[in-house]
Write a structure and sequence with these properties.
- There is one protein chain.
- The protein is mainly alpha-helical.
- The protein is built from four helices and no strands.
- The termini are far apart.
């Protein structure tokens, strides 16, 4: 017999997008709270350097990447086969979003 793969429908894609947004917002605020003590709040000075906020940015990115990779590993094992195709798509979106989230982190 041929392997017939079921694709997830538009409702599943919409539910995946909604859960992705909730996951990203929750992750952002938890990591913002976790990295609150790093860096300097007032970076606009004549002798401005990026070193102190560089540490905050790198820690945020590493923790974000760790959370996203763990979420992908857990979801790829727990979801039914027809929904697994969405996981890597949302993973790639979250990798690009990691650098976008640095902007509100420092504002």
């Amino acid at each position: 017999m041929a392997d017939i793969r079921e694709k997830s429908g538009p409702q599943a894609l919409l539910a995946g997008a909604a859960l992705f947004v909730v996951f990203e917002v929750l992750t952002y605020y938890v990591l913002k709270l976790a990295t609150a003590g790093l860096g300097m709040p007032d970076q606009m000075q004549p002798e401005n350097t990026i070193v102190s906020n560089w540490v905050k940015a790198v820690v945020f990115l590493l923790l974000y990447l760790a959370v996203v990779v763990v979420a992908v590993l857990v979801l790829s094992n727990r979801l039914p086969r027809r929904y697994r195709g969405q996981v890597m798509g949302w993973f790639y979106v979250s990798l690009g979003l990691a650098f976008v989230l640095l902007w509100p982190l420092f504002n």
